[in-house]
User: What shape does this take?
Amino acid sequence: MTKPAFIITIDTEGDNLWQKHDSISTENALYLPRFQALCEKYGFKPVYLTNYEMAVDTRYVEFAKDVIRRDAGEIGMHLHAWYSPPDAPLTADDWRFKPYLIEYPEDIIRGKVDYMTKLLEDTFETKMLSHRAGRWAFNEYYASLLREYGYQVDCSVTPHVNWASSPGNPAGKGGTDYRRFPQQAYFMDPDDISRAGKSTLLQVPMSIHLKHSAFMNSVKQGYDALRGKKRSPSVNWLRPHGGNVEKMKRVAAQSLAQGHDYVEFMLHSSEFMPGGSPTFKDEQEIETLYRDLEQLFSWLSERTVGLTLAEYYQRKVK
Assistant: This one.
């Protein structure tokens, strides 16, 4: 019997983008080798979904080229529209509002996808096959561009999560509502990315499960609606936030028990650096993160096999 895949996805981007609104630094590139070594210890192969500022950082480029050369992971594309070239201001202050790529005119969306794809392929001398949208915002036009540029896999879908209450452009409608999207991998319908179809683009949704029963979630959301609040159901992700290793195991175990043929983990590259995110503020919290990762990876190594997104795609098309 084929073991389920363990897919590690890292949104590889600048330092502390949650709080910085006027500049970008990329010191977290120096902290990635430690994480890479941990992955290799357990035979796992991370996917570094790479943003513009990291793709032009010489330290990261050297690290990533080594990963590619040793077939120890994969480099994919990640795109934050508000500063990824070509420059095309959408709001009064894009750095502050961080508009979603899907909020831009279609010609601008195409230009940014074109630029990032060519930059990554020229820099790393390898075809870009995998992608995750910045701020999880995705739609049918975006998916059509990925197919056109030869991408095989997207992993932007976050089941049960509605990003509509997370604004980008203040005049916009917020992010993508994924509450009715599939939880397992599927080839996307070109006309409706929320359902399976016959396109060549494989969607690999994040491993996310509801915290509460359907009844309890309906009660909570009904109460929120009465208060004028639009919230997603409470969920658990396969994602560290410090001291949550048992919850991560439960998410993975639930996926496997439901017959999923993969579990998908995510973190931001800046979260490996003390002070690189609001979540891990100092060295002590980073050490807690690594203790959790050691336990999680050890547990998963007995139940899964490490695959990149591109390798998982090949498994699905065989």
